[in-house]
TrEMBL record:
Keyword Nucleus: yes
Residues forming coiled coils: 119-153
PANTHER family according to UniProt: DYNEIN ASSEMBLY FACTOR 4, AXONEMAL (PTHR46492), DYNEIN AXONEMAL ASSEMBLY FACTOR 4 (PTHR46492:SF1)
Entries under Pfam families matching the protein: CS (PF04969)
Main location class: other
Compartmental location: Cell projection, Neuron projection; Dynein axonemal particle; Nucleus
Keywords: Cell projection, Coiled coil, Cytoplasm, Neurogenesis, Nucleus, Repeat, TPR repeat
GO CC terms, sorted: dynein axonemal particle; extracellular region; neuron projection; nucleus
The protein's name in its UniProt record: Dynein axonemal assembly factor 4
Ranges of residues in domain CS: 3-87
Length: 408
């Protein structure tokens, strides 16, 4: 049974009513205020203040403030006149019950309307952010395409100019060769004429084409290609070359495992069938704070290729932001299953997956399980000071010397 507050005070003007309700040591965050046009309630357990107003007020222009041990309600009168009393003078419990229920119903409708307005505003903001991101991506693609077209046009023009120059040089060389041939023939004809006059018999010799007039064929050759060997810094007795090679083979197979032949994926653009492109796109949405869009992009990428651990790990990070903690656990565990064998090439990825799964466990208040993941991450990256601090905090929570909030 709540304790009714009777030591309140109120003042008024022609247009406003000011009500002061003492909070009796209650904290501000524990005070619940319900205000409508005909009913006021201030509840801070175990105390309760109720007022069935004498005249209706304008609830939309009224306000309430809590601080310094008192709740102050500023009510705007609908009719400018002085009240003789703050509340109605009646002991009719049924009438008060009817007014209270009607007021609470109005208050619930008001809260629902505000919630819908807030949700619509958030959806509009998300839509605007998505449209802006798509516009930026379209502009970037157009810019790249324009650069490619300009480069292609420039290369084509240079090729055509080079071909024209080559044709002109060939024509000039043919003309010069023809002139030399005519001059030589004329000279030989004159020489033959002089020899006939002097009584000498000269045998006409058909001029032969000189070797220098025809370019020599190009010489053949071989180009030796040498690949740099992949060097592992681990000592031979501790070598994990086989595991490294297995990890690289699995990654190569994962990228070759594209099978976008599902009916609903046939209409996608070429770049939207590339999981790596989709991963980068999801990362941009995540960086912009649009976690729901990032999840949708990662979902499509995973449908195209379920063997890339980064997709599951990044989707787990989005689910953490959206408070989908069980989904974050599933995606982190799937990423860790794919990050095998444990080698240096995937150490950073395994660290992130352990931390994300450990964070999900802790937010579900499963601190023992979360501590195991943080210890596993710390074993991979033992010099990470942030990991050391978080691991110690979880130990303190388990021992009861510290509490973790949801934001931690």
């Amino acid at each position: 049974m709540p304790l009714l507050v009777s030591d309140h005070s109120w003042t008024q003007t022609d247009s406003t009513v000011h009500i002061h309700v003492p909070l009796k040591g209650a904290r501000a965050e524990r005070v619940d205020i319900v205000s409508t046009d005909e009913y006021i309630k201030v509840h801070y357990p175990p105390y309760l203040f109720e007022a069935f107003l004498l005249e209706p007020v304008d609830d939309d222009r009224s306000s309430a403030k809590v601080g310094n041990g008192v709740a102050i309600l500023n009510l705007m009168k609908r009719n400018k006149k002085v009240w003789n009393h703050l509340t109605i003078n009646t002991d009719d419990k049924d009438l008060k019950k009817e007014i209270r229920e009607r007021a609470l119903l109005k208050y619930q409708e008001k809260l629902s309307s505000e919630s819908r307005s807030k949700k619509e505003k958030q959806q509009a903001e998300k839509k605007y952010a998505l449209e802006t991101m798509m516009k930026l991506e379209e502009e970037a693609r157009d810019s790249v395409q324009k650069t490619k077209d300009a480069e292609r046009a420039r290369t084509t023009a240079e090729l055509e100019a080079w071909q024209l120059r080559q044709r002109r040089e060939a024509e000039d060389e043919d003309e010069l060769r023809l002139q030399r041939h005519d001059l030589k023939a004329l000279t030989e004809k004159k020489e033959a004429g002089r020899n006939v006059k002097s009584g000498q018999i000269v045998k006409a010799v058909k001029p032969q084409k000189r070797r220098g007039d025809v370019p020599a064929p190009r010489r053949t050759g071989n180009i030796q290609v040498v690949f740099t060997p992949r060097v592992f810094p681990t000592a031979l007795r501790e070598s994990r070359v086989e595991e490294e090679e297995e990890w690289l083979r699995k990654q190569a197979e994962a990228r070759r495992a594209l099978n976008p032949d599902v009916d609903e994926l046939q209409d996608l653009k070429e770049e939207d069938r590339n999981p790596d492109f989709l991963k980068d796109k999801g990362d941009k949405y995540f960086a912009a704070g649009d976690f729901l869009s990032a999840v949708n992009v990662y979902n499509l990428a995973i449908r195209l290729n379920r063997q890339l651990p980064a997709l599951f790990s990044n989707r787990a990070a989005c689910h953490l932001k959206l408070r989908n903690l069980h989904k974050a656990l599933e995606d982190s565990s799937k990423a860790l299953d794919l990050l095998t064998p444990p080698v240096a090439a995937n150490a950073a990825a395994r660290t992130r997956a352990h931390v994300r799964r450990g964070s999900a466990f802790c937010q579900l208040q499963l601190y023992a399980e979360g501590l195991q993941d943080y210890q596993a991450a710390l074993k991979i990256d033992p010099h990470n000071e942030a990991l050391q601090d978080d691991t110690q905090r979880i130990r303190d929570v388990i021992q009861g010397t510290e509490t973790l909030s949801d934001s931690d």
